[in-house]
Amino acid sequence: MATPGQVIGVGKLITPGGKQGPKGDAGTAVPLADTTQNGLLRQISGKTTDFVDGTNHCQDLVSAIQLIRSRGYNAIGNPTFEVDQRVSGATGNFSVSGAMNYYQCDRWRVNKTTATGAFTAQKQDFNGGAVKLPGTNFFITNSILTLNVTTAQATLAAGELVEIYQPVEGPMLRELVGDTHSISLLVSSSVALNFTVAVTDSTSVKSLVLPCSVPGGNIYTLITLPNLPVWPGGVTWNTSAGTIGYYLQICLGAGSTYTTPVANTWQTGNFLTVAGASNWLANAGATFSFAFVQHEPGPTCGQLIDKPFAQNLDECQRYFQKSYDYATPVGTVTDASSVICGVGAGLQTPYFWTPYRKSLARVPTAVSGWSPRNYGTIPNTVANASSATNLSITGVQGNGTNGFGGFLVSGPPTTAWIAMWHWQADTGW
Fold it and tell me: Cα 410 vs. chain centroid, distance in angstroms?
């Protein structure tokens, strides 16, 4: 053993001998974090775009957003049922019996071919929000479209049906047509119901019928139909402006003529329902309400994409417009927002360029006029404010997608006069 101050050569140091002491405490292992305790993260990937999800795994943020909302696109017009330029909620627009096919609110037609069964159809608006996204406090819409059975019909004949549907313009199909696609519906029913959603081409040659179910009790239910089969060949899928790309149809009952041989796959024929589907019209007093519809590209149903009202209205005006203020029903006697022009002596006809608010999808199938003055018959007339008379409309001048050049009238005065009118332009879509 060395003494203090003694220099020991390399390799000569002698260490104390003896038995090794006991091993120290290794300590308690830190657990992985979970829903009950703090702890360690799982192994990270090292990607700068990662985030930690609720299961303590790292995910790529870009991929996660794409999974939730594949392409942030909804092909359906007025998906919230909020836009109603016709103001049908104020006027009722109720059906009593027989067949009918009309727009209850913008972009949505109610179609019924039943012989005896009847129901009312009404758009309802609410202050403070109507329907929340399930599981959230977010109001996805302020309106619903509600159907209510007033006269029950126990069975439907072969060619009878009850549905709401929308013709979707060609450019709205472009994002969908090359891929799988997915549909979401937010609906409620007073009775448990098996119904269907159908996607058909513009000529009703190909049909994809999708079974759905909703519980009773008027509980809003989000129905998801993901990873729908790719659009088939054998038909031209129109993607050009001014053409119908496809129809989306929600069927609450139909006869055997419309029953598809196979559900969930494309079939050749005009089909809307499946064997075993319910006949909603058989339930006296039953209601069915539509709150939101989404049709998006990709294999997953993303979160419902909000549609702000101003954007929604602007898009709907591609298919229907009026001169009346938004909240004023067509045919109301009012000068507000009416067209007024002076007609010189000897000109007689009130030729006057009347532009549309925006270009229409196609030349309107109907341009109608109403006198803003109560000088007698209001529909299909132009007011002569100089003599307090209404003149019958006999034609439309220069009708196009951007506007028209005034109305032709019967018996116009030969002296100078002041013409006034309201107008409505409807593409039928």
Answer: 42
Asked whether residue 171 falls in the same domain as residue 286, the answer is yes
- Is 158 a domain residue? yes
The CB density around residue 202, as the number of other CB atoms within 10 Å, is: 19
Residue 112 to residue 101: CA distance in whole angstroms:
6
Distance of CA 190 to the CA centre of its chain: 22
pTM for this entry: 0.83
pLDDT band at 129 (very low <50, low <70, confident <90, very high): confident
Alpha helices, DSSP H, located in 233-383: 309-316
pLDDT single digits (tens) 336-375: 999 999 999 878 789 999 999 999 999 999 999 999 999 9
Q: Which is nearest to 143 in space by CA: 175, 116, 107?
A: 107
Q: Residue 412 sits in which domain range?
A: 321-426
Query: DSSP character for 25?
Result: P
Instruction: Give me the amino acid identity at 121.
Output: A
Distance CA 406, CA 347 (A): 13
Per-residue pLDDT reduced to its tens digit, 257-302? 999 999 999 999 999 999 999 999 999 999 999 999 999 999 999 9
Distance CA 413, CA 245 (A): 47
Answer yes or no: is 76 within a domain: no
Please spell the DSSP secondary structure of 344-401, one letter per residue: -TTT-S-EEEEE-SS--SSS-SEEEEE-SS-SS--BTEEEETTTTEEEEEEEESS--S
Tokens of 14: 């002698």
C-beta neighbour count of 209 within 10 angstroms? 28
As to burial, measured by CB atoms within 10 angstroms (0-12 exposed, 13-18 middle, 19+ buried), residue 145 is buried
CA distance 126 to 145: 12
Is it the case that residue 194 has pLDDT exceeding 90? yes
| Pairing status of strand 118-125 against strand 143-151 | antiparallel
Same domain, 247 and 226: yes
